[in-house]
Amino acid sequence: MKLLAFAKSLSExxxxxxxGHNLGDPAETGWEVQLIFLLRVLIAGALGIVIGxxxxxxxxxxxxxxxxIVGCAAALFTVVSMSLWNIGDGERIAAQIVSxxxxxxxxxxxxxxxxxxxxxTAAGIWATxxxxxxxxxxxxxxxxxxxxxxxxxxxxxxxxxxxxxxxKHMLFVKFVYSDEVKDMLINHFGCDSFHRFKLxxxxxxxxxxxxxxxxxxxxxxxxxxxxxxxxxVLSVERLEDL
Length: 242
Hints:
With about 240 residues, the chain is an alpha+beta fold. Helices cover about 60% and strands about 15% of the residues. A four-stranded antiparallel sheet has the order 4-5-3-6, covered by helices on one side. The protein has a two-stranded antiparallel ribbon with strand order 1-2.
C-alpha cells in the first residue's frame, strides 16, 4: 500500500522534482529519492530505444535492446559516480563511461572489401551513453533534444531524396574472366572501371572478383536476369552502405 501511495504521489509531482538538482547524495537519501533515480535510469533507456528503433529498421548490428542497455548503464554509472563525488574519486567513474563505451563501439565496426560498416551504429551507441548521462544528472531537455536531433538527422540522411542524389551503390561481382564479359559488365552497370580487381585460377577457369560503383540501384530480380542471361557471371553481391 505504501508503494502504491508513493507511486500516486510521484505521478503528481512536477517534472522539476523528478529532474531537480537538489536531490542530494543518492547513496545517503531515502527510498523515495532512490526510486526517482530509478525513473531517470528508465527514461535514459527509453530514449536509447528511440535511437535503436531507427537502427532496427535498417537491420543494423545494434538495435533497440543494445541502445536500451547502453542508456540504462550510462545512467547507472553516472548515479554511482554522483554518490562518490564527496569521496573524491566519483568523477573517475563518469569519465570512464566514454572510454568503456568506445570498446563496445569498436566491436560493431568492421571493414569488408571496400565497405566500412557499423560506424554510424557505433556513433549512435556512443551518443546514447551521453544521453543517459544527461538524464542521470537531471538535464531532461538536453537529453530529449539530443535524441530528437540524432534521430532526425539519421532519418533525413537516409531518406530517399538524399539517397537518390548522393548515394553510390557498390556491387561485388564474381565472374569467369574474359575481356568480353568484363566489357559487358562495365556497360551493363554503367561504371567506368573495376575496383579491387582480383584474378585467380579455379580449376581450368580464370575467375575474377571486383567491386563496382554505380549510382543506379539494381534490384535482385535484375541481377538474377543478368546471371541467367550470362552464365559466366557467377555471383553478384550488393554491399550496403552505412
